[in-house]
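Work package 3, deliverable 3.1, input record:
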Amino acid sequence: MTDVHIHIHEKIHRGAKLPTIENFALTLNAGEFVCLVGQSGCGKTTLLNSIAGLDSHFSGEIRVGNQTKNPKIGFVFQQPCLLPWRTVRENIDVVFTNQNAEQILYVDNLLDFMQLTAYSNAYPKQLSEGMRRRVSIIRAFAVNPNLLLMDEPFVSLDAPMAREVRFLLQQLWQQRPHTVLFVTHDLREAIALADKLVFLTSRPMRVLREVTVSIPRENRHDIHAIENFREFLIQNYPELQPLL
Amino acid sequence: MRIVVRGKRWKTFSLRFLRDFEFMTQSKYLPILSIFAFLIFWFGLAVFLQSRLFPSPKIVARVLWQQCESGELPYHLGVTLLRLVVSFTISMLLGCGIGIALGRSEKLNAFFDNWLIIFLNIPALVTIILCYVWFGLNESAAILAVILNKVPNVIVTLREGTRALDKELLNMAKCYQFSRMKTLRHVILPQLHPFLMSATRSGLALIWKIILMVELLGRSNGMGYQLHLFFQWFDIASILAYTVAFVSVIQALEFWMLKPLDNRALKWR
C-alpha cells in the first residue's frame, strides 16, 4: 500500500473556455478509502481518467508512491468493461502478464469470495448485471493495485442489487485493504463506504471540503447512523448544501 | 372394400410425404434442398430449350469427369488456385494493416482517404492492362494487378471496423497496461472478426473473378486462359464444367474452413 498525491494545476478540454479541473490537490493515505462527491458532469470521470493515464493532456503531477508514470492501477469503470468473447475467468486472467501459481490461487479466492466460482466458465452475457460488476471488481483487485479507482460502479444497478454488491465490496476491501478513490454523487453510498469524503465544486472542479467519516466500520450498514451523519454534515457545513 | 384400402394407403403415403417434407424443410436441410431445386430447375430449362448452348447438368457432369480424367482441369484449376492463395494472402495482410492504421489515426485517414477513393474507382481492367504494360506479361504483374484491385476493398472494410471499436474496452486495456500485441489479440481482433470475415468472403468472390480476367488477358495457363479457349470454340459445357469445379472448391473452402472458424470465434454469442 502506498500514499497517493494528486495535483492537477489545470485540465482544459479541447474547445472549452473554462478549465474542467483547476488547482486540484488531494492526498490519499495508504489503505484509505476516499469518496469523491460531486454533482454530475463536474469532472469526476475526467479526474479518474487523468489519474489512470487515459487522458494525459493536463498540467500537474500524479504520484502513486514514488511512481509518476505507469503506476499499478485497478479501475472499476461505470460499465463493467468485460470482454464479451472471454469467460469470467479469462476476463480476470487477461490482466496478468505472466500469471503465477500464487496469482491463480488469489483469483480463485476472489471468485469464491464474490460467489462467482460456479460462473468462472460463463460468458459475461450469461451473467446478471450485478454479477458483471462483481467480475470487474475482482479484476481490479486481482492486479493487487497501488491505487484502486472506482467510477460510480453501481450507478445503473437497482437499489437491492447495488446494496448487495456494495456490501461485498466493503467486505472485500476490509479483508484486502487498498488505497481507493471512489467517485459517486450519492452521499449515502459515500458515507457507507468511505474513510474520508471529499466534496467537489462544479466546473472548474476543485476540492471544496474534506470530511472524515466518524461512523465505525461495523455500523456502516445502519441506515440511521448514515442519516445522522448526513444531518451532521447539513448542520455543520452549509456550503455543502447543494451536494447533500 | 378395395377402394377403401387404396384410399387408406394413399392417405398413409400422403401423411408420410408431408411428414418427411416437414422434416426436410428444417433449416439444416434447407441448403441441400435448395441445391436439388436448382439442379431440377436447370435440368428442366435445358430439356425445354433443347439447345447446344444450354447443356443439361448431366452433360456438364460428363464433361467435368472427362476434364478431370485427362488432368487438364486439375492442372488449370490448381494454377488459378495458387494465384488466388498468393494474391488473397498478400491483399488481406496489406489491407488489414493499412485499414487498422487508417481507422486508428484520423490524420492518416484524412491524408489517404482520397487515394483510397481513386483506387476503389479504377476499373479492374485498367489496372490489369497497366500492370501488363508496365511490368510485362509475367506472373508478378498478374498477381500485382489482382492485389491492387482487392486491397482498397479490404482497407475500407477494416477501416470502418476499426472506427467502430469499443473505446471503453480499449481504455480498459490501456489502464491495465496491456501490450500492443495483447490489445490486438484480446481486444481488437475479436471485435474486427465480423469485418475480417466479410472482407475474406467478398475477397474470395472478387479475387477469383479478377484472376480469370488477368489469365484471360495475359497468361498461358489457368482457368481464365481455358475459358477463353472454350469461348472461341463455343464449348459451353466445358465453360460450365470449369465454373462448377471452381465454385465447388470455393464452397468447400467456405464449408470446411470459414464456417468452422466463424463458429469457433463466435462461440460466446
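Chain A touches chain B at residues 49, 52-54, 70, 73, 75, 77, 79, 81, 83-86, 94-95, 97, 123, 125, 139, 143 (CB under 8 Å).
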